[in-house]
């Protein structure tokens, strides 16, 4: 241990002649500990929220989604579909038609987002894990079935217990410009409710899933598709699958992974996390100003000691390092306790779910928390920067003491 570290440690552990400095030192450590703990917990909550969003959307979204870059829909040949299925890492590809239609059930009507999807979806979907009632099926015994979000079912007042009540799906036909609307201007098809799912509010209140043939007949899309859904085989490489898709489809298509399908939402969460981190770091910096006052008063108290050190040949750099390290010891002690408490609290919440979200119908019962060690390292770096900024001025003043004035 070098001289500056030894003296800084002695100053930290030794009893101060002025009791107020001792109290201020403890207040500084507690302030840093609380700020550090808060940063660790809040950042972990945001990480948990991102993880929950990815998990929830993962039950509904494919591994990769292919959309046309310009326009609304596209056509794809059977040869191209077979070429996609042959790509290394692809376990399945489902064709999709998405369109807004009107659903009418008894006396209720609402606009829904119908999603007609080919049978390959049934082999790879995870909707079974989020079903409220019923079972996933699209066609059975010549009847068409719909799997709808719980919000849609609530708006329509769907009675799952009654198998005789059908839903009428309505979609406008293409009409010539200037032609008058009539009853023949609308496509109408009957469909039975098969199941109700609950994923996330934006999905639950608008999505209805059914067979590709039903959606194609209703919307008159024919062989046009709005997207393709790609499902990975075990051990698949995303980069290889993307490269294969680009080779088969060529330019003009967007290939989106799970995060890219909800890029705006995840970006909003990351931006909010950044601003919360900045705000809490600023609050921690304010709390750390106690280190500034503590070191300033300690420098006044130790003026005679500093003068003696100068008399023994110490230079200003040594004195400055002593007080910088003294501030570092105070901040480090508080940061260690704060990080330790934050990690323990996050572990308890993640393991036992101590704090509930208060929503019995929620898919996530407790507040989501996910500890990421890079965030812990970032918090530690923030505390280090704050410590240097708050300790530098008192250390500089202590190094400029005139020894002649304080030597007896």
TrEMBL record:
**Gene Ontology cellular component annotations, sorted alphabetically:** plasma membrane protein complex
Q: Does the keyword Cell membrane apply?
A: yes
Q: Which InterPro entries match?
A: ABC3_permease_C, Lipoprotein-release_system, MacB_PCD
Which stretches make up the MacB-like periplasmic core domain?
25-171
Q: How does it sit in the membrane?
A: Multi-pass membrane protein
What species is given as this protein's source?
A: Roseivirga pacifica
Predominant place of localization: membrane
What is the official name of this protein in its record?
Lipoprotein-releasing system permease protein
Q: Name one GO biological process term.
A: lipoprotein localization to outer membrane
Q: Which UniProt keywords apply?
A: Cell membrane, Lipoprotein, Membrane, Transmembrane, Transmembrane helix
Domain ABC3 transporter permease C-terminal, by residue range, is 278-403
């Amino acid at each position: 241990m070098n001289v500056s570290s030894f003296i800084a440690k002695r100053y930290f552990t030794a009893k101060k002649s002025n009791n107020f400095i001792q109290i201020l030192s403890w207040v500084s450590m507690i302030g840093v500990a609380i700020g550090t703990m808060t940063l660790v917990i809040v950042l972990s909550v945001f990480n948990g929220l991102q993880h929950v969003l990815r998990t929830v959307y993962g039950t509904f979204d494919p591994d990769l989604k292919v959309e046309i870059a310009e326009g609304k829909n596209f056509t794809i040949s059977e040869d191209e579909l077979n070429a996609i299925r042959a790509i290394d890492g692809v376990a399945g590809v489902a064709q999709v038609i998405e369109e807004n239609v009107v659903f009418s059930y008894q006396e209720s009507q609402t606009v829904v987002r119908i999603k007609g999807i080919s049978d390959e979806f049934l082999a790879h979907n995870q909707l079974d894990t989020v079903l409220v009632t019923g079972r996933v099926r699209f066609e059975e015994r010549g009847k068409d079935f719909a799997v709808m979000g719980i919000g849609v079912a609530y708006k329509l007042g769907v009675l799952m217990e009654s198998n005789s009540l059908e839903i009428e799906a309505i979609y406008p036909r293409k009409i010539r410009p200037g032609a008058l609307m009539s009853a023949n201007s609308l496509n109408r098809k009957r469909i039975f409710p098969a199941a109700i799912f609950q994923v996330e509010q934006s999905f639950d209140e608008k999505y209805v899933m059914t067979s590709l043939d039903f959606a194609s007949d209703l919307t008159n899309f024919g062989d046009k598709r709005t997207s393709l859904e790609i499902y990975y085989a075990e051990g698949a490489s995303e980069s290889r699958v993307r490269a294969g898709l680009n080779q088969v489809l060529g330019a003009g298509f967007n290939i989106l992974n799970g995060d890219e399908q909800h890029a705006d939402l995840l970006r909003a969460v990351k931006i909010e996390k950044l601003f919360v981190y900045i705000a809490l770091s600023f609050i921690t910096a304010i709390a750390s100003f106690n280190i500034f006052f503590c070191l300033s008063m300690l420098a006044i108290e130790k003026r005679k000691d500093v003068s003696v050190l100068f008399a023994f040949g110490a230079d200003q750099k040594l004195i400055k390092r002593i007080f910088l390290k003294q501030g570092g010891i105070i901040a480090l002690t508080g940061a260690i306790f704060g990080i330790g408490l934050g990690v323990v609290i996050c572990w308890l919440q993640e393991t036992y779910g101590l704090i509930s979200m208060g929503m019995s119908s929620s898919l996530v019962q407790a507040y989501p928390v996910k500890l990421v060690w890079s965030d812990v390292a970032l918090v530690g770096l923030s505390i280090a920067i704050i410590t240097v900024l708050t300790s530098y001025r008192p250390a500089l003043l202590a190094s400029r003491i005139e020894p002649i004035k304080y030597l007896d």
